[in-house]
C-alpha cells in the first residue's frame, strides 16, 4: 500500500441471524459454549453481502476500481465483482475483479484498492461441518473500504510490511463447503515469529514504538484466540468481531477499530494468513464525522434468533421436503443482460411527460401513453411503504414460507417483492422498508440475483 | 369501449362437458373425444357438419393438431387459443365471431386441460426465458389473490372476522351447489367450521378458499341465430362478449388498492352495453363467475355490478347469491366444486347456462332463468385479462 493514500469511507455488513451456541451444543450433544454465531440468511452469499457493505461505504460516492475478496465465491470462472459492480451502479469504464482463494485475498484487495484509490470489498460466508470449530467459531459478513487522497481520508496509511511463507495450516479443496486445519499449535508456532517480525517492521516504518489500537486476525484458531495478548495496543486490541470470517475477517476487525478509534489515533492492522501482512493507519479529524452509520458492535448487538435445524437446512446439511411445486427456471442470460440496470441496479423508467414511475422500466407510459420519453431512475437507495402483503405457503423457496409485499416507493413506483429477514408476524400494512440485494434462487447453477424488501 | 357486439346473431345449439376430476385413466385426447361425443349424442349434428374449430388450452397441447389428431378431423381449420384462465371463453368468443362474420355456418369451441399429470400442486407456468425478476415467478396464485382480503377489510373497515365469514360462506355455497352436480369434482357439502379450520395456503386463504385442480373438457357448437332451431328447440343466444387485457397497471400504480379488478369492470361494461343490460341485478337470472379463490368471488360481485362497493360481503352473508337467493352465482358449484382445468372452465360455465335454460339442471334447477352471465379471470390482481359473456334463452 502506498503512502499518501487513506480510507475515505468504510462500512461493515453483519447479517441479521444469530445461532445460539448452546442450542447447537444440545442438538449435537457436545459442549459448544455459549454466545452466538452470526449467520447469513439462506438468500445471502459473499456477493450479496459485499453489495450491502459496499453500498453503505460508498453512500453517494463512486469508485473507479473494485476489488472483491472472498474465500467463498458464488461463481468460479465467472467474476463475482462484476455483479457487485452492477448492483452498485459503478461507471462502466471502471475495473472490477475478484481476489479469491484465501484469507490473504482480503489483504490483496486492500493493497490493490489503496494503491489505486479504489474500493475494496471483503466478504465471506463461512460454513463448517456440524460440530466443527468453523461452525461454532466462524461468522459471516462483509466490509468495504474506499481509498483516496489523504486530504479527504478518515484514516491515512502511514506504513506497511509483509512476509510470505509456505506451510500447511488451513486448507480446503476447491468446491468443498468445509475445510480443514492442521493441529493448531503447529500453525501458531509458525505464525508467531512472522507476526513479531512484520509488526515490528511496520511500526518502525511508521516511526512508532507502539500503536493505540492493534487489530490481529488469523485463520489459525490459536493465533485468533490469543490476539488480545500477543501484541497489545495502547488503547485496545482486538480480533475479528465475528470469529473466523475468511477474507472478510480483517475488514470487519478494521471497521470495528475505526468505529472506536479517536481522531489522531494509530491503528496497527495485522493479518497472519499464509505469511503475515501489517499496515499502520493514523485516523484524522474527519473520522469523527464520517464513521459508518451503524457501528460493528451495534450491528452485532442486533439480530434475530435462528433455529439450529433451519441453519442446517440453509447450509445444505439438512435436506428438507420442499413444497410440491416445480423448481424455478434458471434466469436466462440474454434477458438478464438486457435488464441489467433493472435487475442489478433496480432502475425503472420515469415518464418525462407525466412523471409516472415504472418498475420495471418500459417504453410506453402506462399513465399517458407517451412512447420512448423515459428517464432511467434507480430506486435502489429509496425507501417505501408496504401497501399489502401475504405469506405464501405453497411457493417454492429454500426457506418457506415466502413472504411477499407490494411496496410503494417514496416519490413514486410500485413493485411486488419478496421480504428478506422477515418475521411475518411483525410485518404490517404501512411497514417501512428499504431494499437489500439478495439471491432469489439458484437453478441450473445460475444464481438469480435481485432485490428484496427489508423492514427498516 | 367501442365494440359493436354480435347480439342475437349466433347461438349455441349443442354442448358437451365431461365430468371434472382427477382422471388418472384419461388423457387430454380422451377428454376431448368424450366431450365431443356427448355434444353430438342426441344432437342432429355430426362432426362432419362442423366447418371450423377453436380450441382453448393453456398447456395441454399446442396447435390445432391437439384437437384434429384426437378427433381425426377431416382436414378442418383448428385454431388453438390461449389467454390464461380465460382460454376456454376466448375459444368461444372467437368461434362466435367466425359465424357472425359469415365465414362459416357451423363452428365448435372446445376447451380442455389435463392438470393432474404434472405431479405438482396448483397450476404450472410455462414462461418464456426471462431475467428472473418477475414477482409472478415466486408468488403463487393463491398468494396473489390472498392480497384482496386484507385490502378489502382495510378499505371498507370490515372486521377481518366478518370477512372470514363471507369467504367461508362463498366456499360453503359453491360446495353446496356442487354437491347437486354429478359432473363436479367435489360432490359433497362442506361444513363452515371445516372450511375455516383448513390448513393455510397463503395469507388467510385455507385449502377450502382455493379452487381444486382437476382435468376436464367441454365444447359448444355455434351456428347463426336464424339457423338455430334447425338443430334444437332451446338454443342459447349470445347477447354480449367482451375480453379485456389490462396494461397491468395495478402492479405498477400505487393508486391501485387491491379491492377491485378494473379489467372486470371494463369487460362487464362492454358486455352489458352489447347485451342491452342496464341493471344487471334485475336483468341477469344467474351468473357463473371465476371463483378461483373465495375473495375473488366477493370482489367480482361488486365489479360485475351485482352489489354496491363495500356491500358485497353483507350480501354474500345474507344469501343473495345462494341457489335460492336473488341472483344465484355459480349454481353448478363453480371452480370451487369443479376444479379449474383452465381451457375447459369457460365452456363448463356456459354448459351450466345451457342446462339451466333447458330445465335440465336437476336438483339445482333455477326457476325459469332467461339471462345468464359467465365470467373468467386470467392472471392476478393488478395484472389480468377478463372475459364476460351474456347469453339468453330468447331472441330480443
Describe the protein in words.
The complex is a heterodimer of chains A (456) and B (396). Chain A is an alpha+beta fold and 456 residues long. Chain A is built from 13 helices and 23 strands. Chain A is 25% helix and 31% strand. A 10-stranded mixed beta sheet of chain A has the order 5-4-6-7-1-8-14-13-11-12, sandwiched between helices. In chain A, strands 21-20-19-22-23 form a 5-stranded antiparallel beta sheet. The longest helix of chain A has 23 residues, at 184-206. Chain B has 2 domains: 10-116 and 215-235, Thiolase/Chalcone synthase (Peroxisomal Thiolase, Chain A, domain 1), CATH 3.40.47.10; 141-209 and 238-392, Peroxisomal Thiolase, Chain A, domain 1, CATH 3.40.47. Chain B is built from 13 helices and 11 strands. Chain B has helices at residues 28-40, 65-70, 87-100, 141-146, 148-156, 160-178, 192-196, 262-275, 280-283, 294-303, 312-317, 334-338, 342-358; strands spanning 10-17, 52-56, 78-81, 106-114, 200-202, 205-206, 215-224, 236-245, 286-288, 371-380, 383-392. In chain B, the strands form 2 sheets. Chain B has a 9-stranded mixed beta sheet with strand order 3-2-4-7-1-8-11-10-9. The model of chain B has no long low-confidence stretch (mean pLDDT 96).
Beta fraction of chain B? 15-25%
Overall SS class of chain B: alpha/beta
Shape descriptor of chain A: globular
CATH structural architecture of the largest domain in chain A: 3-Layer(aba) Sandwich
Oligomer: heterodimer
Main sheet characteristics of chain A = 10 strands, mixed
Describe the secondary structure blueprint for this structure.
The complex is a heterodimer of chains A (456) and B (396).
Chain A: E1 5-13, E2 17-20, H1 21-28, E3 36-39, H2 46-58, E4 65-70, H3 81-87, E5 95-100, H4 104-116, E6 119-124, H5 133-137, E7 141-149, E8 155-164, E9 170-171, E10 180-181, H6 184-206, E11 213-217, H7 221-225, H8 227-230, E12 236-238, H9 249-260, E13 266-271, E14 275-283, H10 296-301, E15 304-306, H11 308-314, H12 333-338, H13 340-343, E16 347-351, E17 357-358, E18 374-378, E19 384-392, E20 402-409, E21 414-418, E22 432-443, E23 446-455
Parallel strand pairs in A: 2-15, 4-5, 4-6, 11-12, 11-13
Antiparallel strand pairs in A: 1-7, 1-8, 2-3, 6-7, 8-14, 9-10, 13-14, 16-17, 16-18, 19-20, 19-22, 20-21, 22-23
Helix pairs in contact in A: 2-3
Chain B: E1 10-17, H1 28-40, E2 52-56, H2 65-70, E3 78-81, H3 87-100, E4 106-114, H4 141-146, H5 148-156, H6 160-178, H7 192-196, E5 200-202, E6 205-206, E7 215-224, E8 236-245, H8 262-275, H9 280-283, E9 286-288, H10 294-303, H11 312-317, H12 334-338, H13 342-358, E10 371-380, E11 383-392
Parallel strand pairs in B: 2-3, 2-4, 9-10
Antiparallel strand pairs in B: 1-7, 1-8, 4-7, 5-6, 8-11, 10-11
Helix pairs in contact in B: 3-13, 6-10
Amino acid at each position: 500500500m502506498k503512502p499518501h493514500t487513506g480510507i475515505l469511507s468504510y462500512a461493515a455488513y453483519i447479517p441479521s441471524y444469530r445461532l445460539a451456541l448452546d442450542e447447537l451444543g444440545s442438538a449435537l450433544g457436545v459442549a459448544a459454549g455459549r454466545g452466538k454465531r452470526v449467520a447469513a440468511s439462506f438468500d445471502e452469499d459473499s456477493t450479496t453481502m459485499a453489495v450491502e457493505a459496499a453500498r453503505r461505504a460508498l453512500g453517494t460516492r463512486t469508485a473507479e476500481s473494485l476489488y472483491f475478496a472472498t474465500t467463498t465465491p458464488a461463481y468460479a470462472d465467472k467474476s463475482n465483482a462484476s455483479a457487485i459492480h452492477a448492483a452498485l451502479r459503478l461507471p462502466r469504464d471502471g475495473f472490477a475483479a475478484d481476489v479469491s482463494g484465501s484469507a490473504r485475498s482480503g489483504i490483496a484487495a486492500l493493497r490493490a484498492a489503496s494503491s489505486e484509490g479504489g474500493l475494496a470489498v471483503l466478504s465471506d460466508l463461512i460454513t463448517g461441518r456440524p460440530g466443527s470449530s468453523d461452525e461454532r467459531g466462524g461468522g459471516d459478513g462483509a466490509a468495504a473500504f474506499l481509498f483516496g487522497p489523504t486530504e479527504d481520508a478518515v484514516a491515512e496509511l502511514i506504513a506497511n510490511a509483509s512476509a510470505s511463507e509456505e506451510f500447511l495450516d488451513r486448507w480446503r479443496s476447491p468446491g468443498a463447503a468445509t475445510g480443514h486445519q492442521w493441529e493448531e499449535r503447529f500453525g501458531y508456532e509458525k505464525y508467531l515469529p512472522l507476526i513479531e517480525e512484520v509488526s515490528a517492521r511496520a511500526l518502525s516504518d511508521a516511526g512508532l514504538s507502539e500503536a493505540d489500537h492493534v487489530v490481529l486476525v488469523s485463520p489459525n484458531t490459536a493465533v485468533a484466540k490469543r490476539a488480545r495478548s500477543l501484541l497489545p495496543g495502547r488503547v485496545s486490541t482486538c480480533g475479528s468481531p465475528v470469529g473466523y470470517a475468511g477474507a472478510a475477517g480483517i475488514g470487519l476487525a478494521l471497521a470495528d477499530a475505526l468505529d472506536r478509534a479517536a481522531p489522531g489515533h494509530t491503528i496497527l492492522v495485522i493479518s497472519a494468513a499464509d505469511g503475515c501482512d501489517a499496515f499502520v493507519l493514523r485516523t484524522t479529524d474527519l473520522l469523527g464525522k464520517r464513521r459508518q452509520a451503524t457501528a460493528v458492535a451495534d450491528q452485532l448487538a442486533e439480530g434475530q434468533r435462528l433455529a439450529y435445524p433451519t441453519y442446517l437446512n440453509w447450509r445444505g446439511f439438512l435436506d428438507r421436503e420442499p413444497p410440491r411445486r416445480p423448481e424455478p427456471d434458471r434466469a436466462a442470460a440474454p434477458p438478464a443482460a438486457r435488464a441489467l440496470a433493472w435487475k442489478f441496479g433496480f432502475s425503472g423508467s420515469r415518464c418525462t411527460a407525466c412523471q409516472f414511475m415504472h418498475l420495471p422500466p418500459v417504453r410506453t407510459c402506462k399513465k399517458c401513453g407517451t412512447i420512448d420519453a423515459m428517464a432511467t431512475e434507480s430506486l435502489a437507495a429509496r425507501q417505501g411503504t408496504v401497501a399489502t402483503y401475504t405469506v405464501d405457503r405453497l411457493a417454492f423457496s429454500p426457506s418457506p414460507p415466502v413472504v411477499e409485499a407490494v411496496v410503494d416507493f417514496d416519490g413514486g413506483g410500485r413493485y411486488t417483492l419478496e421480504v428478506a429477514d422477515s418475521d411475518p408476524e411483525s410485518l404490517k400494512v404501512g411497514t417501512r422498508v428499504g431494499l437489500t440485494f439478495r439471491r432469489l434462487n439458484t437453478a441450473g447453477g445460475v444464481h438469480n440475483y435481485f432485490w428484496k424488501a427489508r423492514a427498516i | 369501449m367501442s365494440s359493436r357486439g354480435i347480439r342475437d346473431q349466433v347461438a349455441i345449439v349443442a354442448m358437451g362437458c365431461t365430468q371434472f376430476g382427477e382422471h388418472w385413466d384419461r388423457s387430454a385426447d380422451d377428454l376431448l373425444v368424450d366431450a365431443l361425443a356427448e355434444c353430438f349424442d342426441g344432437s342432429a349434428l355430426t362432426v362432419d357438419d362442423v366447418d371450423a374449430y377453436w380450441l382453448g388450452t393453456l398447456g395441454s397441447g399446442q396447435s390445432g393438431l391437439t384437437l384434429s389428431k384426437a378427433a381425426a378431423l377431416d382436414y378442418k381449420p383448428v385454431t388453438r387459443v390461449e389467454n390464461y384462465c380465460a382460454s376456454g371463453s376466448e375459444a368461444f368468443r372467437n368461434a362466435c365471431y367466425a359465424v357472425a362474420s359469415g365465414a362459416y355456418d357451423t363452428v365448435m369451441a372446445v376447451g380442455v386441460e389435463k392438470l393432474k399429470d404434472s405431479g405438482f400442486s396448483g397450476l404450472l407456468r410455462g414462461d418464456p426465458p426471462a431475467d428472473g425478476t418477475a414477482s409472478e415467478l415466486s408468488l403463487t396464485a393463491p398468494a396473489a389473490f390472498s392480497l384482496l382480503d386484507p385490502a378489502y377489510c382495510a378499505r371498507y373497515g370490515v372486521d377481518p372476522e366478518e370477512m372470514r365469514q363471507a369467504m367461508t360462506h362463498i366456499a360453503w355455497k359453491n360446495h353446496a351447489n356442487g354437491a347437486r352436480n354429478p359432473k363436479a369434482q367435489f360432490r359433497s357439502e362442506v361444513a363452515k367450521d371445516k372450511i375455516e379450520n383448513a390448513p393455510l395456503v397463503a395469507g388467510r386463504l385455507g385449502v377450502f378458499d382455493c379452487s381444486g385442480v382437476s382435468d376436464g373438457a367441454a365444447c359448444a357448437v355455434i351456428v347463426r341465430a336464424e339457423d338455430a332451431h334447425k338443430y334444437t328447440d332451446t338454443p342459447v343466444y349470445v347477447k354480449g362478449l367482451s375480453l379485456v387485457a389490462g396494461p397491468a397497471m395495478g402492479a405498477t400504480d400505487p393508486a391501485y388498492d387491491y379491492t377491485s379488478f378494473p379489467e372486470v369492470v371494463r369487460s362487464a361494461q362492454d358486455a352489458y352495453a352489447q347485451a342491452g343490460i342496464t341493471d344487471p341485478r334485475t336483468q341477469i337470472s344467474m351468473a357463473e363467475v371465476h371463483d378461483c379463490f373465495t375473495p375473488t368471488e366477493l370482489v367480482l360481485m361488486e365489479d360485475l355490478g351485482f352489489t354496491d362497493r363495500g356491500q358485497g360481503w353483507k350480501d354474500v352473508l345474507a344469501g343473495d347469491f345462494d341457489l335460492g337467493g336473488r341472483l344465484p352465482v355459480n349454481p353448478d358449484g363453480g371452480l370451487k366444486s369443479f376444479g379449474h382445468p383452465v381451457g375447459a372452465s369457460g365452456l363448463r360455465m356456459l354448459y351450466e347456462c345451457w342446462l339451466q335454460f333447458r330445465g335440465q339442471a336437476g336438483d339445482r334447477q333455477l326457476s325459469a332463468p332467461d339471462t345468464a352471465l359467465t365470467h373468467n379471470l386470467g392472471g392476478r390482481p393488478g395484472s389480468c385479462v377478463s372475459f364476460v359473456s351474456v347469453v339468453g334463452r330468447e331472441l330480443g
